[in-house]
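User: For a benchmark we're assembling, each entry needs the component sequences followed by a predicted structure for the full assembly. Here are entry 17's components. Please fill in the structure.
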Amino acid sequence: MIPALDILLIVALLWLARQALVARDLFKGVVLFIAFGLLLALAWVRLRAPDIALAEAAIGSGLTGALFLSTLGRLRRMEREAGQAEPPPEDGRRGGWTGGFLTAAGTVLVTALLGWAVWALPAGAPGLGDAVQARLGESGVSHRVTAVLLNFRAYDTLLEVGVLLVAIVAVWAVARADFPFVTRNAEAGSVPPQQTALVNLLVPVMLVVAGYLLWIGATAPGGAFQAGAVLGGAGVLLLLSRPHWAVLPERRWMRTGLAAGLLVFLGVGLALVIAGRRLLEYPAGWAGALILLIEAAVTLSIGLTLTLLFLGGRPAAGDPAPTMTHTNQQP
Amino acid sequence: MSVSEWLSALLIAAGTGFFLAGSAGLLRFPDVFTRLHALTKADNVGLGLVVAGVALQTESAVTLVKLVLIWWLVLVSSATVCCLIAGAVLRHGRAPAAEEEAR
Amino acid sequence: MTATTLYALAGIALFGLGLHALIVRAHLVARILALNVMGAGVFMFLIAVAARNETPDPVPHALVLTGIVVAVSATALALVLALRVQAVRGRAGLAEEESPDA
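Assistant: Structure for entry 17:
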């Protein structure tokens, strides 16, 4: 017997996803996608995955939505500047009726095959849960997901932190920073006072929450990825309501911060190799401390990466920026 | 069920009632301003009641603090965001009465 | 049928919805949105399979956790590329897919 809540949740998720994907108006689609992300966080809780629910609530419904909305704003501005009064109508069904039918039939076929594979999955496959449980005592942390992320499968996580760095480097290579419209307002001093007050209130709370998530990750749901996501959210809020030069660190520090996670991770790994162990094979008794060190650096880097990704490009020397970042005059 | 459990269930049920009213307002009201009104007012009360109901079931003080913190954060941000959205709509020259978007 | 099986099937359905939109929609932002829905479907499948055991398997959890963060970074990169396409071509769509009369 499946609980009614789960059925309701799944129906709502599928309906929202469909509506978001068929919406002609991209703005509407993105807003529906944000609602989809919120419900998805609930689904993770139902599936007993609180770690993922935490990350989803910050990223799936928050940061991803902010990225899409700012991109739509930039697109609209570019269209205006190019003299396109209306955004060109999106050509919906390409290839006529036959093409549309074949696409639909093909998608249904692929989905049905995948669904059948899921249906036929052998029940009672043990998974790796028991293996994790057996060695949890040696991992240096007592939360299973953190043990997998930072110890048993630390090599994967190291590479994933590398992917994040590659992403921001690629974004910087493609475009110059386009400071959000509101940041321009911030420089002109026209951010609504309620917004400034809210950000002043929320950002310190978010910093505390990020620190808490980082610390609690050793024993309970939480850790570097969730903490970094919260930091990223705080960074985006700051960028939306303050002159960017009052938010972003100096370029040297920015680059150091972006690379810190990967560098510390690699540094610990290499130090262990030099000490005669395998890559990221922590010595007994040191695992907890080393994991916390790596996680702290990774949190900082993830937070900074997510914040800077929102700018959509590399903040360059030519950008209007009083360089005295440390004076940091608050309005 | 003890008295506090009954009270808890009652509070949560009342809270969801307010959520329902807020959602109905969001769907049925004619313009941005009345929809914001329905959504923020009703949902804040609804969440407050749900938090009060859940708080009756917790035994740890830390959880209680977290619950109240959640309610406070939602109150502060929804009140502010409501104000910001309404301000932005007004600046784009849409008066409350002129908004006749049929939906 | 159990709830976890239903979630796993819902994940596949989300993947299918996203796949269809990825093919049918022309606007790059809509396609990136579709990719995100496909990703959500894959994540949901993994987590639903992990939840079949009494205590959920933590390995897929770790995979999806990093996956979400990597997905948002990839989305940011894709959106920046879409903006470049718009800047160069005047529309956020791919060249070979324009109808001849456009």
